[in-house]
Every structure is written in structure tokens, then in C-alpha cells.
Description:
Layout: H1 2-6, E1 20-24, E2 32-38, E3 41-50, E4 64-71, H2 89-103, H3 108-111, E5 115-124, H4 129-150, E6 163-171, E7 174-177, H5 181-184, E8 189-196, E9 201-208, H6 215-242
Parallel strand pairs: 4-5
Antiparallel strand pairs: 1-2, 2-3, 3-5, 6-7, 6-8, 8-9
Helix pairs in contact: 2-4, 4-6
Amino acid sequence: MVERRRGRRDGRRPGDLRPVRIVPGFMPPAEGSVLIEFGDTRVICTASVQESVPPFLRGSGKGWVTAEYAMLPRSSPERIERERRGPGGRTHEIQRLVGRSLRAVTNLEALGERSILVDCDVVQADGGTRTASITGGYVALALALDRLRKGGAFARLPVADSVAAVSVGVVDGRLLLDLCYEEDSRAAVDMNVVQTGAGRFVEVQGTAEGKTFSAKELDRMIAVASAGIRTLGALQRETLRAAGVDARKRR
Length: 251
């Protein structure tokens, strides 16, 4: 009882992830798709194959992976206006982050001159939509690549490793993993960590909202985030294995 009173709104301990669920094949028309849930945050990630590349890659023999991100109008308590004139600053930042993260683990040479477009659509937002998009986006990407592999495009999946992401922050003086919106809105320090299955970093986004932090505190935040990402990586592998996809790291 004392633990729950001192714990978080949902009863989690400081280093706990929210309940995470990945549902593969959620959008059957797409070459790869998942519904990913981090607690009350829900994102649909679809991966579409296009037999072309951007102009700057034509004739290079290399492929491309990119991403788009959007929040549905009632994914939050108040209606969000659709971005009819193109992505705003926050949206543009997030979709570039998702694209960079997925490209970091994809062998673009082995992909050949084709593109994979990963769409991340937030159905319900309760914090951590960008980290959920990266984590689910990787699984959708792997599913799409496996469909290409089965069609004879390549012998092995052109991925070097998995990639996942999670948030971490300092709220009311405590270090917490995987912040929901209520925690994120009160965080003195807020950080998103993107890491491969081998533990290599793709990106670390850390901001002192109300309190600066030391190098020692930074190390602790990264350690807690890395532990969470290892758990997410295991769930990604389990989801892909159940779908018949071998996405083990290639040496």
C-alpha cells in the first residue's frame, strides 16, 4: 500500500514501462503494419513499398527509408486541426527523427532502388508518441522487408539491427521511465533516447525544462532508458518471430 501511494498515477514503479502491446498486420493492405500501444498511447504504423527512390538516389543502386507522422484530430482531449498545408514544426521534427532512426539499422545498398515509407498515425496520445512511432515503425518496416524477401528481392532481411525508443525524465525529484502526458507536462527534465538492439545510440534528446542536470544524472537517465529499450527490443523480436520473421542481427 505504501509503494502504491508513493508510486505513479497508474501504480508503476519509477523504472517500469507502461504496458506495451504490438499487434502485427493491423492494416492488411500495407506491406507491413502494426498497432503499438504504450499504455493509453496508441499509434498505427504502416510500411509501404515504392519501386522508386528520391531523385538524389537515382542510379545509385541504394534504397531509401523515410517516415511521416500525424495525430488524428481527436487523439487528444481537445481536437487537433489537420495539417492541410503541410507538416508543422513539431510534426516535421518527429517524422525526421523516425526516418533517421529506421535508416540507422537498414542496409540501404541491399534494399536496392526502392523506398519504404513508414506512416505513423497517432490514434490516441498520452505521451511518448514519437518513441512509440519509432518502436512500432521498426516492426512495420521489418514486416514489409520480409514480404519483399519472400518475393525474391533479397535473400536476407536488409537490417543490421533493431531500433527502439523510450522517454525518461525527472518528475517531482524522481527519475521516471516512459512518461505519460501528465508526468511529461510536469517534468523538470525530459529526454527521449533512441537505441539499437546492440546498445548503440541513434539519438538522445534531452531538455532541462525547469532544472539543469549533471553528467552523473545524465548517465543515470541513459541507463534507465537503456534498460527499458532492452525490454522493448525483446518484445519486438517476439512479435516478429510470432509473425514468422527472422530479424536477428547479422554479423
